[in-house]
Amino acid sequence: MSPFVPIFELMRRGLETMKDYAQARGAEYQPFGFLKTPKLIRTYRGCQITYFLKSESSGDNNSPPLLTTNIRAPFPNTSDFTFSINHRSKVARFVNKHGKHSAETGDTEFDESFSVRSSDPEMVRLLLSDSAYRDVLKRSVAGLRIDDRKEDGLLNKRFKDVHFVKFFVYGFITEVAEIDLAFDCVERTLDRLAQIGQARLPD
User: Fold this and answer.
1) Of 119, 150, 163, 170, which one is least surrounded by beta carbons within 10 A?
2) pTM for this entry
């Protein structure tokens, strides 16, 4: 059997789950189109949140593609504040646990599990000071970032008054409840950004 058959099966299951989510939650499902991938779209506090699946080359011809579930959510920003939060590898966790580490939040479990970088360390500490928000991140995210590019890459257009929440997890989500967690993570991030004065959102 071709090693890529399971990948196509995962894609099929991921797309079926997106359709099930749209029907169960009232989200908009956009199917395949010319140069367009399927998407789920929800609106939250005036922000259009877009959910999609992505398959990219791993850079190794002998390895299968890298599969990720992604969300993008543009929002009107109030400053140049940016940050990224990523799960640490097992090796990085060991080094972090037994070596020097400057905690971002004081939450040992969170600080050992995630690497946090920001243009404003004090602001990101304020963002992550809410324990309920940290719990959402622990449950649902492999990576989360805020920046001024619609997509990743040096050549992508920068925006002056709009930043983007970018969420991803490895693999394709195949459970409706897991999609709920993904959207909840992005929505809670928008809420926190508004609470700390970094996003202009309606109540």
Assistant:
1) 170
2) 0.86
